[in-house]
């Protein structure tokens, strides 16, 4: 079909769908009618990675579940110490203590990096502030 839009001519070929008659019949305003449906409509399925209750899986284009790809499992940061500490309140105390220690070490590393950058830039005012902050942490 030849069409024209704002002076530009182009050919338009609408997609053709295969329609089939259904066994379903009905009545509308006193007249019987037959229903028809499209025999094949491609429905794209999402391709994504999902996690359900800690188990990872992925889906493909056909909507089928694929086995998980080989990935490195990440263990919790404090898994070894928590298991050794036992259960209950002691485990929670050890976990909180370890988390606080890890947080303090990360802050010290961040401040140390900022001190090195301040020295490289020759920023003496920032360097004195960062050194004072480092002494407060220790």
Automatic annotation (TrEMBL):
Pfam families: DUF4278
Protein's name according to its UniProt entry: DUF4278 domain-containing protein
Gene source species: Shackletoniella antarctica
């Amino acid at each position: 079909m030849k069409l024209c839009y704002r002076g530009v001519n182009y050919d338009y070929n609408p997609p053709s769908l295969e329609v089939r008659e259904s066994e379903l019949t009905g009545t509308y305003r006193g007249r019987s009618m037959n229903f028809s449906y499209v025999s094949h409509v491609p429905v794209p399925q999402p391709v994504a990675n999902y996690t359900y209750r800690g188990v990872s899986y992925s889906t493909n284009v056909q909507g089928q579940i694929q086995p998980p790809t080989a990935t490195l499992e990440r263990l919790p940061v404090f898994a070894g110490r928590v298991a050794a500490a036992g259960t209950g309140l002691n485990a929670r105390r050890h976990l909180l203590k370890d988390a606080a220690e890890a947080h303090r070490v990360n802050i010290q590393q961040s401040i140390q990096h900022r001190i090195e950058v301040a020295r490289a830039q020759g920023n003496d005012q920032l360097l004195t502030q960062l050194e004072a902050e480092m002494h407060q942490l220790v």
